[in-house]
Amino acid sequence: MGGGGYRGDIEGLRAVAVLAVVLFHAGIGSLGGGFLGVDIFFVISGFLITGLVTREMDAGGFSLATFYQRRIARILPALVLMALAVLVAALLLCLPGEMQGLRGSAVATALFLSNLYFWRRDPYFAPPSEVQPLLHTWSLGVEEQFYLVYPILLLAGGRGGARLRIALVAAATGLSLTAAAVLATTAPQAAFYLLPTRLWELGLGGLVAFRLVPIPSNQALRELLCAVAVTLLLRAFLLVSPATGAPFPAAVLPCAAAFTLLALGEASAVGRLLALPPLRALGRLSYAFYLWHWPVLAFWRLARGFDMPPTTKVGLVLTALALAIVSYVAVERPLRRRLRSGRPFRVLAGGAFAALALAALAWGATAGQWRLHSLPAPVLRTLAAEQERIRPPLLADCRPPVGARTVSCLRTTPGRRNILLVGDSHAAHLWTALTERFPETHFLVSLEMNCRPVGREPAKRGDCRNHALDAPPLALAPGIDGVILAARWDPSELPALAGEIRALRAAGREVTLVGPVVEYLPTAPGLLARAQLAGDRRLYDHGRSAPRERLDRDMEPVARAAGARYFSAYRAECPEARPCRLFTRTGRPFHFDYGHYTLDGAREVVAQMPEP
After folding, report:
1. How would DSSP label each residue in 278-306?
2. Please, what's the b/e burial string for 121-149 (b: 16 or more CB within 10 A of its CB; e: otherwise)?
3. I need a surface site. Which of 83, 98, 368, 480 has the fewest CB within 10 A?
4. Going by DSSP bridges, is the β-strand pair 565-567/482-486 parallel, antiparallel, or unpaired?
5. Verdict on whether the full-model pTM lies above 0.85
6. Triad 391, 394, 396: Cα angle to 5°
7. 88-121 pLDDT, tens per residue?
8. The sheet that has 482-486: what strands, in order across it?
């Protein structure tokens, strides 16, 4: 059961998986589904671990201590080296707020809890994932948690023989796949990051190791099935998009392909191709390559911006590969041999100590408002904007479904002009400035974070089905004089937005549509601070999102044709034929993150808005 022996085709499959991931993350080529290489790694891990454990159990020589010793030897040395390098790079390159943002992920990485950390963290105001150097370690968290529970599951079925083991793994795989299918739409963050919804991928590999798949005696049929598997793999890499990144259904095709290649590929033409020496060599480096590629890309984006020419992308990938080779040759391979030959409990104790020491070091290195170079006072004043946030009571109280607190946000005031402000956080950041600019107007507020006020098809809007658009019905209630629509607009929803405006206008309501704000990646204060340090505003200008300017130009004719007044928040900050403004008149940044206004920024933008 679970035949042993080295298989060069598995090393080659690892190479294909890591190449897909790295090229996707670097933006090289058109591998929209390259992130699915991680799912292939999970299937391979399930296959190899199941084969290892069941062979030793059948031989009567399995030991949990020895198993965990091998896992420490395989994973920990290279991970510690990469994490230490990330901390040093952060001390050199990161701004104080970025250091604080790294703290939680660095500690979680050391404790193999990254997946839980990124699952529980609120992504709404978080920095873009592309500049979080340890985001990729979520997959290591899933694997390590699998290694903790899976051998125990196999041991639990040991006395019942092979059939009980197979039944337990098959049941766990089926339950996990069901959970992944359900949570992919109801809780996509959990579905992506948690072991229970990823276990089915590892379980698939385990079922291959049990040799449940009948191997056709006809060689031509085996070759055909392997060719179909490769076709499925290519189809997934080329046609799947990150929007379907939950483990179901996006991962089904690559996992099915990996399942087939593990079961039938060893003696096929595809297997011989995967076992070619260059692919085997890259497969041996795959773990180190995966560890290093993401921090290299993240720190470059953090320091130099998101706009990378093709030569830079290739150079960064080659840099990551060079670091992987050094890491493999100097640390991973020699320490793996040494740790595997040591006493199990001594290695386990040393591994636990190393993980806890790394966590403590990560906390200490990232906890302070400091870096290896001091920052001038003007830069610190710029970075202070990152501490500003939208008023919490507004976000908490004025969100659907309607309750006692929400009613106060939606109550009209007799004798005053009542205007309903509807949208997401890009509406919320205008509220205080609106009330100051138009003190005679009463503003009602209906907000739902990350939900744009368009469309009334609940099945298509997922978590937005309680959005208070339910606002058009509210907007048609007596006493409402006008509506302001503001959100982080999506170009694909312009037709639906025009329909909302026409419905409101048909009911006699005045409508003001606030267009997209200027956006910066990764954050406006961070880019401004780096531009100040370098004395080069181009660092700020290069971080501006060009698609938001195009959307602003596209929205205005749509809004006017539907009968709304259009206010270009974009042009309030970036006037036509003039450079975008760097600071407000008070010397503060316009934004506290990628696009949400500081209070001073909102005041200056709203000062240019016509009375609603």
Report:
1. HHHHHHHTHHHHHHHHHHHHHHHHHHH-S
2. eeeeeebbebbbbbbbbbbbbbbbbbbee
3. 368
4. unpaired
5. yes
6. 110
7. 999 988 988 888 889 999 999 999 999 999 998 8
8. 441-447, 417-423, 482-486, 510-514, 565-567
